[in-house]
């Protein structure tokens, strides 16, 4: 049964495909700390199937979620994939035995990662592969991405990757990256209270490039704010729905990939497509970000 009309969210171009602006991020389907299997694999499968049944046609993943676990669950839940489904992965990191996140930028590691993603997902070519910068794992940091991006461009020429994106990067890295390969999307940390990428989003919008915020709901520490709760209560919605609706209204080139392991949360999140935030709600939410920046 349909929970929300995702058409209200609109669509945007991702590479050569058009996707609905409300998608799904699969990271939460792994075990604790994104490591090992989930407690309830059947529930994870059900979340993915429900997302697609309700109109989600853009799923974000990586082989380093689990590792391998999340891609295998996606394959179990959805393969053979519907023609309209765009699966986006990311490479550039690997997991230590202690669940740590380590850089994996060598030619061998990147090539292996693309092949691993294809094998675990059951695909011949990836729609989009994001190069995840690990120069600083916790936020964009300047430094050259020329070598790893050249490897992905080679894999693109071989037909294993259709489109390339960048993640955890600066505006300069996007500009420099475009000299090596077309960059179809940027995936960085951004949400209603964390707005460091405002200028980059506006620039990418002018260039008709997708911006895909990770941690749209705050990530490992989900958003909590009295303002968000007040706005939500006045609209009869939940704070998470307001946070997603704000992102949808922020810019046309923003594609959402909220993550959840819960069917109820998935449906709640998809219903955010139907919310139009009034001017006074936008003003209150902007004041919240201004207060944090001050
Ligand atoms: N490129 C990168 O470096 C990078 C980094 C991180 C993530 N990502 C991608 O971005 C996607 C989104 O990020 P994320 O999943 O880390 O963070 P998120 O979407 O900001 O938030 C997920 C957290 O919010 C909770 N949640 C979701 N919906 C909720 C609701 N309606 N009410 C209350 N709590 C709710 C989830 O718990 P429940 O499971 O209990 O719902 C989970 O704890 C990931 O899935 C992944 O694909 C990329």
The H-and-E topology, N to C, reads as: EEEHEHEEEHEHEHEHEHHHH
Shape: globular
Alpha-beta content class: alpha/beta
Number of β-strand runs: 11
**Which ligands accompany this protein?**
NADP nicotinamide-adenine-dinucleotide phosphate
Identify the strand order in the major beta sheet: 3-4-5-8-9-10-11
Distance between the termini: 45 Å
What's the tally of helices? Answer: 10
Topology of helices and strands:
Elements: E1 11-14, E2 17-20, E3 24-25, H1 41-53, E4 58-60, H2 69-78, E5 86-91, E6 93-95, E7 101-103, H3 107-121, E8 126-132, H4 146-157, E9 161-167, H5 171-177, E10 183-187, H6 198-206, E11 210-211, H7 226-235, H8 239-250, H9 263-270, H10 279-293
Parallel strand pairs: 3-4, 4-5, 5-8, 8-9, 9-10, 10-11
Antiparallel strand pairs: 1-2, 6-7
Helix pairs in contact: 1-2, 1-9, 3-4, 7-8
Q: Would you kindly provide a written description of the structure presented here, covering whatever features stand out?
A:
This protein has 294 residues and is of the alpha/beta class. It has a single domain, classed as TIM Barrel (Alpha-Beta Barrel). Helix content is 38%, strand content 16%. It is built from ten helices and eleven strands. It has helices at 41-53, 69-78, 107-121, 146-157, 171-177, 198-206, 226-235, 239-250, 263-270, 279-293; strands spanning 11-14, 17-20, 24-25, 58-60, 86-91, 93-95, 101-103, 126-132, 161-167, 183-187, 210-211. The strands form three sheets. The chain has a seven-stranded parallel beta sheet, covered by helices on one side. The longest helix has 15 residues, at 107-121. The radius of gyration is 18 Å and the shape is globular. The model has no long low-confidence stretch (mean pLDDT 96). NADP nicotinamide-adenine-dinucleotide phosphate binds next to helix 9.
